[in-house]
């Protein structure tokens, strides 16, 4: 049974506070960008109470409390409720009561990701709207590299990795040189960012570009790949053997030269010792002084000699005679022979003739005996 007042009640409810925004309820933005969370509303004449607008970040866990981000109440905005967005959350309109409860978030961070709720209250009406914000991080500049030796006939793995970036990240490889076609044996992994070039050939050499991208941005890196022929193993072994042999020969030559120089030095040293043994040692000053003393004594004794004892003196070997420089330096083999001894008949004949043997010493001009 239809009641007369029920239509009026439904009609009044239909014209109360309403959220009029028709935009998307899910938004994806890149970090450091700004976003507008739209929340437009309209009031009915019956909504006569005070206007309250509240934006909150809903907790992902039901056991946790929601975080109030920004608040408008009593014709005043309160923007410093949530420390994580302090200074970055503002109402889009200077006077939200005119029907615009939208807010702007600046300098987005990945921690800003979450579900935001706009609640507008004006008694007796109350409405709310939820929006999912996903803050994505752009891929950082990837690093391109080649794993293992880049030799012909081997499997070469090219890697491309971004250290930052919100998943899902997609990696793509392309060749930018020559015919710009990837090798036919290349196997791509768009999630892992690898490209495996099986049985690589020299035609696989060239310039490659890897692009890392997600929904909010992309970055790329360049890799120069050079496939080289495998080394000549036999030639390397032969070269190593030759190098070892040359090193041994050089060491042997050095040892031989050292031994020969050592033996030569030892031989020269022995020869010098033999020469020194043949040379008579020089007389000391003491012996020379004694010789001069003996000569002086002989000179003094000559004055008292008679003709008879002069004969004996002449026949006595002169051991105290000082050798001259020429005699001292003359080798032993060239020593002068002693003067021939007078014949036995010389003495008697001279005596018979009345001669007297006298030895006259040599004298200087001053009369001293030499």
Automatic annotation (TrEMBL):
UniProt superkingdom: Eukaryota
Segments spanning the bilayer are 234-259
- Ig-like domain location, by residue? 4-134, 139-228
Q: Name one GO biological process term.
A: homotypic cell-cell adhesion
Listed PROSITE patterns? IG_LIKE
Cellular localization per UniProt: Basolateral cell membrane; Cell junction, Adherens junction; Cell junction, Tight junction
The membrane topology of this protein is:
Single-pass type I membrane protein
* Protein name per its UniProtKB record: Ig-like domain-containing protein
Region annotation Disordered: residue ranges? 279-309, 327-346
Molecular function (Gene Ontology), one example: cell adhesion molecule binding
Q: Does the keyword Cell membrane apply?
A: yes
Protein keywords = Cell adhesion, Cell junction, Cell membrane, Disulfide bond, Glycoprotein, Immunoglobulin domain, Membrane, Receptor, Repeat, Signal, Tight junction, Transmembrane, Transmembrane helix
The major lineage groups are: Eukaryota, Metazoa, Chordata, Craniata, Vertebrata
Tell me which GO cellular component terms the UniProt record holds.
adherens junction; basolateral plasma membrane; bicellular tight junction; intercalated disc
Q: Which InterPro entries match?
A: EJ_Adhesion_Regulator, Ig-like_dom, Ig-like_dom_sf, Ig-like_fold, Ig_sub, Ig_sub2, Ig_V-set
User: What is the protein's major site of localization?
Assistant: membrane
Q: Where is the composition biased (Polar residues)?
A: 285-309
Entry-linked CDD domains: Ig
